[in-house]
Amino acid sequence: MRSKRIVSVLSAVLALASFASCADVPGTASDTENTADAMTGTAEDTENAPELTEEPETAPGTEAETEPPVDTGSVAYLLGSGAELTYKAKIKLTMNPETVNGVPYRQLQGGCTDGEYMYFAMNDTKSEGSRSIIYKFKAGERKPYAKSEPLPTDHSNDMTYDGKNGRLVVCHNAPNKKMLSFVDPQTLTVTGTHELPFKAYCIQYVPEKDRYVVGVAGTMDAAILDSDFNELQRLTGEKTGYTKQGCDADENFIYFIQYNKNCVVIYDWDYERKAIIDVPVSGCEPENMFHIGSDFYIGCAAGNLTVYQIVLKEKTSE
């Protein structure tokens, strides 16, 4: 990892240190809803018109060499740009738990996105035979687009969207810690399962690499798997002492959301720890995280579903 990327991540740490002043975190579900209404809105976007440039002349019989356009709004670009970063944080949505057939589904667990929709698992908290309801939200909307029946996915500690196979992959964790379930994102039904050869607590599919990042239970290690779940590499990490939750990843970084202390631990793909970014929320438990473009989403359990959006931008001079 180049030194400018390390500096940029540290810049993100300094920017995110002001998180508490940007978002008030309620202690109750009703307060959370009121706060969500107060904080509803979108981040202001400013775009500079691109300068027109003449196309370079090329020698006869040759073509100009071009590079693919850079996505300047991506998380990887922003963290690696070396620019000073700012962000805005707000509660994106809240949803009260519901009771189905006399069973309350009140504990948020895994969450993920396919880029258009967000998916969250609400668990019944049973120690045996636990089930979860998966709720599907269109990004930017507050009401569920669809929901599943209670699914036999145990604790549903984390999940990811596998775009190659068009499926959600749910990491069960307790009590069946080696088990994964495949869920159709259209019908929200279980279409199959797979048992890993090791115990896992989180999972993220990275389409740019066609790889899965899987957190190994009881450790801070990560297993890198191919699209058929064959282990290719085992990355060894040092425990932080905090409660491990879900994970996120892109082609440059691997992110772990943790609880008590609430923070995001960032590694590169060589598994060098680059930063621990404080997420000073209170009254709720961060459970999962994912990103859409340059925006991070953190799903928190607060007796309900509460989702925070963090909009990351380059700082511009006034």
Question: What do you see in this structure?
Answer:
- There is one protein chain.
- The protein is mainly β and 318 residues long.
- It has a single domain (3-39, 83-314), classed as Neuraminidase.
- It contains four helices and 22 strands.
- A four-stranded antiparallel sheet has the order 1-22-21-20.
- Strand 10 (179-183) and strand 11 form a beta hairpin.
- The radius of gyration is 20 Å and the shape is globular.
- The model is unreliable at 1-64 (pLDDT under 50).
At the first level of CATH, what is the class?
Mainly Beta
**Distance between the first and last residues' Cα:** 31 Å
Classification by helices and strands = mainly beta
Based on CA atoms alone, the radius of gyration comes out at 20 Å
Q: Count the DSSP helices.
A: 4
Find the count of extended strands (DSSP E, 2+ residues).
22
Record the strand order, biggest sheet: 1-22-21-20
Strand content: 35-45%
CATH architecture: 6 Propeller
Instruction: Describe the oligomeric state of these chains in a short phrase.
Output: single chain
Q: Can you tell me the residue ranges where pLDDT is under 50 for at least 5 consecutive residues?
A: 1-64
Sequence of secondary-structure elements: HHHHEEEEEEEEEEEEEEEEEEEEEE
The CATH topology annotation reads as Neuraminidase
Number of domains: 1
Shape: globular
